[in-house]
């Protein structure tokens, strides 16, 4: 399943516009907050696909039956760029377990790069619902390598991949290399991917815009 929230008319597109706008991007706090708000919307939409059980809730005047989540997901993010997006998802799944993993591009002198996955902190993922978020899905390589690394902690029964901006190429790569029990939740999908693997028009480097340029 692929859901592209930006294809529908909603307030979500205001946040897409602002994170793309090079003038508004100058305000790091606003950029992080927009990522967080988009994470909240993604969480709400994902929650509609989850399982619920009816429970009795006692009020001061009686008892009400309310459908509640039958289980909590594991929210995972790729450091560092995904932290605000992760926080937005966690604002809604506030009892969720969490996982963190590092993935970065190690550039070579010839202009090529490899994706390195190092740090991993995660609960047991066996038969859990996993929400794996990263702001940008460029080539798709980082997402696939990250997912495979997380499998060391168990096999999720369903995974929701969340990205703000994806390239067509990256989305197709991820679809090809990830299992069938994976759903994709994208903010927008752009056509172009440069030779340096940057999405065009994209928005730039989400990690740098959120936290400052790294040396």
Which keywords apply here?
single chain, alpha/beta, globular
Q: Can you describe this structure?
A:
The chain is α/β, with parallel strands linked by helices and 215 residues long. It has a single domain (2-211), classed as 3-Layer(aba) Sandwich (Rossmann fold), CATH 3.40.50.2020. It is 30% helix and 34% strand. Strands 1, 4, 5, 6, 7, 8, 9 and 10 form an eight-stranded mixed β-sheet that branches. Strands 2-3 form a two-stranded antiparallel ribbon. A hairpin with a 5-residue loop joins strand 11 and strand 12 (199-200). Helix 1 (12-20) runs antiparallel to helix 2 (28-47) and helix 2 crosses helix 3 (83-92). It is globular and about 70 Å long. The protein starts with a strand and ends with a helix. 36% of the residues are buried. The mean pLDDT is 93.
């Amino acid at each position: 399943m692929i859901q592209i929230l930006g294809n529908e008319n909603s307030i979500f597109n205001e946040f897409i516009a602002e994170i793309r706008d090079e003038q508004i991007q100058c305000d790091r706090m606003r950029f992080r907050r927009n990522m967080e708000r988009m994470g909240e919307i993604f969480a709400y939409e994902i929650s509609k696909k989850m399982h619920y059980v009816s429970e009795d809730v006692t009020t001061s005047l009686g008892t009400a039956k309310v459908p509640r989540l039958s289980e909590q997901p594991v929210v995972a993010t790729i450091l560092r760029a995904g932290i605000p997006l992760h926080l937005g998802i966690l604002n809604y799944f506030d009892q969720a377990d969490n996982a963190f993993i590092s993935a970065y591009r190690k550039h070579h002198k010839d202009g090529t790069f490899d994706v390195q996955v190092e740090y991993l902190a995660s609960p047991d993922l066996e038969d859990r619902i996993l929400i794996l978020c990263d702001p940008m899905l460029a080539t798709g390589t980082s997402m696939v390598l990250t997912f495979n690394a997380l499998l060391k902690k168990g096999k999720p029964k369903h995974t929701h991949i969340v990205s703000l901006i994806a390239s067509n190429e990256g989305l197709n790569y991820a679809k090809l290399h990830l299992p069938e029990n994976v759903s994709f939740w994208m903010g927008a999908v752009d056509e172009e991917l440069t030779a340096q693997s940057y999405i065009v028009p994209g928005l730039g480097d989400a990690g740098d815009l959120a936290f400052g340029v790294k040396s």
